[in-house]
Every structure is written in C-alpha cells, then in structure tokens.
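hiii so my PI (J.) wants the whole complex modelled not just the main chain, which honestly fair. so below is everything: two entries, each one labled with what it is. i double checked the lines twice but i was tired so who knows lol
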Amino acid sequence: MLMTRQEIFDKLKKLLVAADSGNLAITENCTEQSRLREDFGMNSVNILYMVIAIEEAFGIVFDDVGVNAFATVGEAIDYIERKLR
Amino acid sequence: MSKSNKASLLALKNLPHDFVRVTGSPVALWQRPRILYDGTGARRKIRGGALLIANHTGFFDPVYMMLAVPYRRQFFIVSEEVMDKPLGTLLRACRCIRIDRQNPNLATFREIIARLKSGEVISMFPEGHINRDAAGSFQSGMVLMAVRSGVPIVPMYIKPKQKPSDRLTVVLGERVSVTELYGDRPTFAQIDAATRLLYEREAKLAELLRD
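here's the output for the full assembly
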C-alpha cells in the first residue's frame, strides 16, 4: 500500500519535530514550501541527519546525493515518493 | 590480536600508507615528539574505532597526528580543496577520504561510518580549515559520525610551533562518547551541545600547553 503525499509529509514532520522540538518554524509553520536552511535554520549536518532518519523511518536507501539536493520539505517528499514507488 | 587484524597487517591496500609511515618515520628524530596525556583515560591506547580530532594550524598537522598515535593506521578526512588537485589521487591511496565541505554527500558519510564501525581510526580537523589563531568554531559533522558509528571521539591539541626546529608537543584528552551522553538519537540541540563540549575540551588542552 503506497503512502499518500500527505502521509509522507506527516511522517517527515514527525521526524523533524523529534529532532528539533524547540524550533517553532518546524512545529508550527511547516509546509511543503518551507526551506530547510533558511526557514528551519538547518545546516548541512542537520540535513544529513534528517536523510539518515528518513532512510530508517521509510525503509528506503538514498542514492549518493549531496545535502544540497534538498532545499525544501517538498523536494525531500518528491524524493521519498520516487523511492517508495 | 584477532585474525582479521593479522590479515590487515599485510594487506596490499595499506601499502602506500605504510610506505609513507615507514619512510617518514625518521621525521620523529627531527620532531622529537613529546606526547602528553590529560587524565588516566587518555593514557590508554586507542583500541578499535575512534575519531581523532585536533586543531589545525598547519599543513603538517596530519603528520603530527601520525606521530602522536604511531601504533594505529589512521584515515584522514581531507577537504575537496586539497583532494581535487593532482596530489589527491596519491592521497586517496594513502588513506585520505575526500569530503566536500559545501555539499557533503551520502557516499562519503557512509564510507566514514563503515570504516569507523570496522574498527578504524579516522582523524579529522573539525574546524574544517587551517586556522593559525586560537581554535575557531567546530563543525558538528564529527558528532554525527560518532553517533552513527558508536565510536568515541579523542580530542588532541597540537601546540603550534614558533619555528620549524621546535619540538613537537601534543596533548591527548579524555575520550568523549556522544552516545553515552545523548544516546543514538540526539536532537539537533544535543548535537550542538556535544560539539560545544568538544570545543571546550580542546580549549582546555590548549590551556595546558600555554607557556
């Protein structure tokens, strides 16, 4: 059973909240358009951490991508969707 | 010594690195390394996987790290700036791992984790560049590497030399296990806290060597 885009978004948001619960930009204002670096204040290590958490939570394996491959939450969801298909 | 360690003693892949270690060992006569330890835990030999971190004040710091822990082969994490030059191919054969600081990729990260998990020592400079002044801020990548592989971080301070003939002085500090401090699922804030802790440890080691 494939996950819907909304389900992926919810699961991803849960991961981000678990990693940075004190960040209001994540807990309150997280949308697909949110930018990981500018809006959430994440650095490359945070994004790498997020990628690893995604791999574990969704049971997928990312290709060899750089952390700059994902600028927004939506782009990360696009990637997860492609991998789950 | 386990069987796998015995096998790796003669492994062909280690040849370039070992060649450098053997032919470069007379450097110790010139450097006359003075290795100090801060605490009894620091005095214990490094066994198994570990992440060795140091301040970075000059081009020869990796050599000093090799002299400070001569009983272990080390991998070095080297920036794209150095590795993308022709010298990079040679460095790669001598156990240098290329990292793109602006856009670190997953393959690099996976390689580092796999090496640490297999019991290798990886040395790196968490400032990310040569910094001749007092230690600048640390990047938090090392914490993530330690968390994912479960290895301790060994802080080391290399005393900057005033002139080339000065004796090499390094001090090794107590090991820091991030997984013991924060578990294997730290939050971003905990990763930053661990990075600050290591920075403080490094500053404490620097203080010990102040004249």
